[in-house]
Amino acid sequence: MRTKLMQAWLLLLYGYQSFVRSQTYNQETILSRLEKSGIIPTVLSEDFFPTTNLLVDYTDISVVLGTELDPAKNQTSKLPSFNYATKPRGYYTLALLKVSQNSTLNHKLYYLNVNIPNLYINLGNDTGIPYNPPEYPVACSPETYVFVLAAQSYMTPSIATPGSRDNFNIQKFASDCNMNIIGANYFVLKPKNTDRCQNTQRYSTTIINLASESGCDSRISMLSSFSIKSFVFAITELFLLALLI
């Protein structure tokens, strides 16, 4: 009996702490981190105004605006838990996107859940886009994944399901469905083989440096240096030959 009471008390305490964290937030910090990461303006518009923390907790680590996660430790294998400030009888949408730094349109969708009543994630509708665990970047550049929270104006039973996970624009989706984006949080995945990437970067740097020295002045300098060395070598050989004679 005592064990069950203790477990219930701990759950209530954890829930209260999560509630406090979701209510207490710093808008300037959130906006600064999102801008620094490039999420603003590539994913979210420059007039984005957060009104709540979006707490994201994986099994053994919390996501705090740029946390580095490791898929090898199964940190991203399962859908995390969420917490955020809600309104009575409110409905919300959650999305996870991989950020494309080259385009504001080419973001890949890894999760989309709409019509979430308050914090009851399991009661929402995943719209045919269930959680797809992020994996290591294929290239040598880190990849950024952003969770986006939107408040719905009402429960919408007929939200159009995205035809593909690719080329997803969360701003357009929210606008078309009368939603207001109110929160965001993100994490970063680094390449798995960092040694290989470092060697590749060093090799690329060497090639660039050699290419930058291929101008006329550099060639003249190299030829001049080569000519002087050849001249000195020739004089030395003649001097040694004279001694032998």
Would you mind describing this structure in some detail?
With 245 residues, the chain is an alpha+beta fold. The chain has two domains: 25-192, Alpha-Beta Complex (Phosphatidylethanolamine-binding Protein), CATH 3.90.280; 195-244. Helix content is 38%, strand content 20%. It is built from six helices and eight strands, in the order H-H-H-E-E-E-E-E-E-E-H-E-H-H. It has helices at 2-23, 27-37, 39-42, 170-176, 194-212, 216-244, and strands at residues 55-57, 62-63, 67-69, 81-83, 91-98, 108-117, 143-152, 179-189. The chain has a five-stranded mixed β-sheet. The protein has a three-stranded antiparallel β-sheet with strand order 2-1-4. The longest helix is centred in the last third of the chain and has 29 residues, at 216-244. It is globular and about 105 Å long.
Features:
PEBP_euk; signal; three-stranded antiparallel sheet; Phosphatidylethanolamine-binding Protein; 6 helices; alpha+beta; 2 domains; 245 residues; PEBP-like_sf; five-stranded mixed sheet; OV-16 antigen
**CATH architecture descriptor of the largest domain:** Alpha-Beta Complex
The CATH topology assignment of the largest domain is: Phosphatidylethanolamine-binding Protein
Largest sheet: 5 strands, mixed
Q: Averaging pLDDT over every residue, what do you get?
A: 77
Helix and strand element order:
HHHEEEEEEEHEHH
Order of neighbouring strands in the sheet with most strands: 3-8-7-5-6
Helix content, binned percent: 25-40%
Shape assignment: globular
Low-confidence stretches: 7-23, 202-208, 210-228
> How many helical elements?
6
| Top-tier CATH class of the largest domain | Alpha Beta
Tally of extended strands?
Answer: 8
- CA-atom Rg in angstroms: 29 Å
**Category by helix and strand content:** alpha+beta
CATH superfamily of the largest domain: PEBP-like
